[in-house]
């Protein structure tokens, strides 16, 4: 069983428009709503892959209720903890020319008691899982070192951890020793910059390798960096691999990172496959996600076809 | 007492951004929510002016509850009828350079029983009012001739009517004989085009006069056309007037039409002032609304100052 944690879950709302014209009024014909937030997307993908998964995190208000109803409709088991604040929405305006414009509302305030309540629930849930995926931003009120705390409890419980975060939550989380960290290039740049105390950019494989090594030194057992079209760079205790697909994938990149996290999370299950296999799965799932119009969904046919198109290179 | 009817009420949500960049993700720092829809804005303005007002219409779901809570917080009495559908949101992205971009969700579906239930409530409410303002679009399921029905009941009850609508709801409403119709130039163009069976544009006072005369012939007792910076053209049984302000008003034009409707509605109250006074009030309120950052709000100081800047010309 894999547990996904989404502390800043969101109701994803998509408005379809012919074209986005700043300054104009757009009458929306079609609205799509779905449960969102990185960990929720990871849970949905794992569920679609036939893995046993449970989604937890914080939700509140009418928006939170709607989010949980939609997740239930998708068949994804959940154990979100209710909070008094109102869950946020993430509004995406999707134009017919393919451009997507996002408006991310701030998360709901979380009280100290609510956070303590969540920690108790999380520790109880850990008893029944093998892997936990910790994903996304933190709403206001949740301590900046929240992921460090959650990783610490998992480690004590003998549960593997995959961390997908950005900024301070990532920086505070890595020293707690997650099994895998999955930053993208921008997140890795930010982390490496803060470690070095000067602004650096991860623009190529060498720079990604240097930043990933620094991240391992800080505490992560393995780092899998998602570098967009350049694929994945995995820096692990067993070796370093570069995995990519030769297919040029057009589509919606939102959610490709979540698909990658899903692959890495199931790679941590007992009897999990060796790194090259996990990376092949991660690239193929990410690619299938890019081809899907909706974040957090993958077409099984795309997934299988793309697996064959992935090349894995072991780096010395 | 004035009754405002908002069949397609909305929760107005404003996202403040530095700049709207199509294709980018915007993290929203500040969200403002308020009860919206044309008739709701009219009610809020009338309440602020010290008039006795009651807002009715249809609201549903968590969004409808939020809308009613916000209206109550504004102190505006309401008697909305609950429906099973979820009230819509109107999302406005307000950029620091002053550009506002709107995303209008479609209204909730309304069942036949709900519409009949509303008609019963409306007829009961008519017993206690002198004027009813019928404002805005119709949600799906409400008959296209809804305003004709509502005007008919008002006429039977001896209640004056002000109609502010567009497209088919306007075209079907006018023959029922509203006391005042308040179209803007685009709405008047559309109505006149449908009457003539060919596309005409209301671009100047002469064209507005021709279209207003045709609208009166169709059934409206008076027509007050709001022509943006060109002011108001009132075509009535007592005469024709052109009212405008010499002040160049910069700001948010959303809601200026609602302010104008508020002035015309209170002009229909017993002991109401003569047309030139009503038009002065309407132009000044509309101007004060333009200067307000929020639709449906007017600054009393702006309102009073602008009254003095309005010129009224009687047209032969």
TrEMBL record, chains A, B:
<protein>
    <submittedName>
        <fullName>1-phosphofructokinase family hexose kinase</fullName>
    </submittedName>
</protein>
<feature type="domain" description="Carbohydrate kinase PfkB">
    <location>
        <begin position="12"/>
        <end position="297"/>
    </location>
</feature>
<comment type="similarity">
    <text>Belongs to the carbohydrate kinase PfkB family.</text>
</comment>
<keyword id="KW-0067">ATP-binding</keyword>
<keyword id="KW-0547">Nucleotide-binding</keyword>
<dbReference type="InterPro" id="IPR002173">
    <property type="entry name" value="Carboh/pur_kinase_PfkB_CS"/>
</dbReference>
<dbReference type="Pfam" id="PF00294">
    <property type="entry name" value="PfkB"/>
</dbReference>
<dbReference type="InterPro" id="IPR017583">
    <property type="entry name" value="Tagatose/fructose_Pkinase"/>
</dbReference>
<keyword id="KW-0808">Transferase</keyword>
<dbReference type="InterPro" id="IPR029056">
    <property type="entry name" value="Ribokinase-like"/>
</dbReference>
<dbReference type="InterPro" id="IPR011611">
    <property type="entry name" value="PfkB_dom"/>
</dbReference>
<keyword id="KW-0418">Kinase</keyword>
């Amino acid at each position: 069983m894999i547990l996904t944690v989404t502390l800043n879950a969101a109701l994803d709302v998509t408005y379809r428009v012919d074209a986005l014209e700043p300054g104009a009024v757009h009458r929306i014909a079609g609205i799509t709503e779905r449960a969102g937030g990185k960990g929720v997307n990871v849970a949905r993908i794992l569920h679609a892959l036939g893995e046993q998964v449970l989604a937890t995190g914080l939700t509140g208000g009418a928006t939170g209720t709607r989010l949980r109803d939609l997740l239930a409709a998708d068949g994804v088991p959940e154990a979100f903890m209710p909070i008094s604040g109102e869950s946020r929405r993430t509004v995406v305006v999707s134009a017919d020319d393919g451009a997507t414009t996002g408006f991310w509302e701030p998360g709901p305030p979380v009280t100290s008691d609510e956070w303590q309540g969540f920690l108790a629930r999380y520790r109880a849930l850990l008893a029944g899982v093998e892997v936990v995926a910790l994903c996304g931003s933190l709403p206001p009120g949740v301590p900046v070192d929240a992921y460090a705390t959650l990783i610490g409890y998992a480690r004590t419980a003998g549960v593997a951890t995959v961390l997908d975060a950005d900024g301070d939550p990532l920086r505070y989380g890595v020293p707690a020793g997650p099994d895998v960290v999955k930053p993208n290039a921008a997140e890795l740049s930010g982390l490496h910059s803060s470690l070095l105390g000067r602004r650096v950019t991860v623009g190529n494989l060498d720079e990604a390798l240097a930043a990933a090594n620094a991240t391992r030194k800080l505490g992560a057992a393995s780092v899998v960096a998602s570098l967009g079209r350049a694929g994945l760079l995995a820096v692990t205790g067993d070796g370093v691999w570069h995995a990519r697909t030769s297919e040029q994938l057009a589509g919606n990149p939102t959610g490709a990172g979540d698909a990658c996290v899903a692959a890495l999370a199931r790679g941590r299950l007992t009897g999990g496959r060796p790194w090259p296999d996990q990376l092949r799965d991660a690239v193929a799932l990410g690619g299938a996600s890019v081809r899907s119009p909706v974040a957090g969904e993958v077409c099984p046919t795309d997934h299988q076809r793309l697996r064959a198109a992935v090349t894995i290179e072991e780096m010395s």
